[in-house]
Design goal:
alpha+beta, two-stranded antiparallel ribbon, 2 helices, 2 strands, 13% strand
Length: 77
Amino acid sequence: MLVKLFISVVFLFILLAIAFVFGSQNEQLIELNYIVAKAEISVSQAVSLFTFLGFLIGFLISSLFSFKRRLTRKKSG
């Protein structure tokens, strides 16, 4: 199980590195409109920001389901 986790993390970091390389090649500015504010950032910063947010949200949801599964195993066993 630890080897599977290690391979997954390495694969994820490789994909993140590729996303950052592609994003860093484009220095065009874009405007992000939030609910209460606006920000003008480069495409590379936007790619980095949203890639990180996607990873964080996915990790939190995955951790929640893993924790829930462990709790149900403890109750039944």
